[in-house]
Write a structure and sequence with these properties.
Layout: E1 3-5, E2 12-14, E3 16-19, H1 28-40, E4 45-47, H2 55-63, E5 71-76, H3 82-95, E6 101-109, H4 112-119, H5 124-133, E7 137-144, H6 147-156, E8 161-165, H7 168-174, H8 178-186, E9 190-194, E10 198-201, E11 215-217, H9 222-234, E12 239-241, H10 246-257, H11 267-280
Parallel strand pairs: 3-4, 3-12, 4-5, 5-6, 6-7, 7-8, 8-9, 9-12
Antiparallel strand pairs: 1-2, 10-11
Length: 289
């Protein structure tokens, strides 16, 4: 699998990466197989967090044989206190059976209050920075779902990475993503894309086919899934995180394996993707609570 430099970290990450939430409530033996297959396929970036059920507890043992070969990312909620974040860090290290995180992020910064709390004295960022000084964390990042939050965070602190939805629907219908990429590149921040294989929010009474994602993943339209993932990879990002379902991890790997240059879309393919966005985009954010 193609590798790309994750900004100033210098780490060469796989263009498609592992969304750890998919392991929530997965039997350990199956999780071990899923992780081993992902690593064998070339994936070397794994992302997880304490709000993903018991995914950390399951990913830790599964990832143990490969820990030194991969880039492990975890996160905490931005509205928590310094003490609460420190507890998150220590518990996550224990669950994931590791001595350090390659990357630790503020998770899902969606409102002004949480953002201000995270940046204030006694807030989340202070705990993360202290953990970095102790060698528990190598790099600091954040995830956000709207440009205003991502831009304000980058203007407030010199983060190493940015996690943001670089998604065909969100890009064309809501004009979200371009400014975040441009701003991140000014200071060589690594860009981690989420929702590359997302369609839109579930519609009322829509058959979910046992997918537990809060959004509808692109499981039922192979052409659109192909175009959507390749569109994300065509942007100036380092890696695209897989959706929270093993079946979508497999679909993403199948798409990437089909092409010598998966990030290249022809003018005709881009026109088709824009047509999908216009006709079948639908609302993606905000996340339903």
């Amino acid at each position: 699998m193609e590798k790309r430099r994750l900004g100033r970290t210098g780490f060469e990450v796989s263009t498609f990466s592992f969304g750890g939430i998919m392991l929530n409530n997965t039997p350990q033996e199956k999780a071990d197989q899923v992780v081993a297959k992902a690593v064998e396929s070339g994936i070397n970036f794994f992302d997880v967090g304490p709000t993903y059920g018991n995914a950390q507890n399951i990913l830790g043992p599964a990832l143990r044989p490969f820990r030194e070969k991969v880039f492990l990312s975890c996160k905490t909620e931005p509205g928590q206190t310094k003490k609460e974040v420190r507890a998150d860090i220590e518990q996550s290290l224990s669950f994931l059976e590791t001595d350090y995180f390659d990357l630790y992020q503020l998770h899902e910064v969606t409102d002004e209050s949480a953002l201000e709390n995270a940046l204030s004295p006694g807030g989340a960022l202070e705990a993360i920075f202290e953990a970095k000084e102790e060698g528990l964390i190598k790099y600091i990042g954040f995830s956000a779902h709207s440009e205003w939050a991502a831009l304000k965070l980058m203007n407030s602190f010199d983060f190493d990475t940015v996690m943001f939805p670089i998604n065909w629907n969100y890009w064309y219908n809501y004009n979200q993503g371009k400014k975040v990429i441009a701003k991140a590149k000014e200071t060589d921040k690594g860009i981690i894309a989420i929702k590359a294989l997302a369609h839109r929010r579930w519609q009322a009474d829509e058959a979910k086919n046992d997918y537990n994602t809060w959004y509808k993943p692109l499981f039922d339209n192979d052409e659109l899934a192909d175009l959507a993932l390749r569109f994300t990879l065509s942007q100036e990002i380092a890696t695209a995180v897989s959706p929270g379902d093993v079946r979508m991890l497999e679909k993403g790997l199948e798409i990437i394996d089909k092409y010598d240059r998966p990030a290249h879309l022809s003018a005709e393919e881009l026109a088709k993707l824009k047509e999908y966005a216009e006709i079948d985009g639908g609302q993606l954010y905000p996340i339903p609570k």
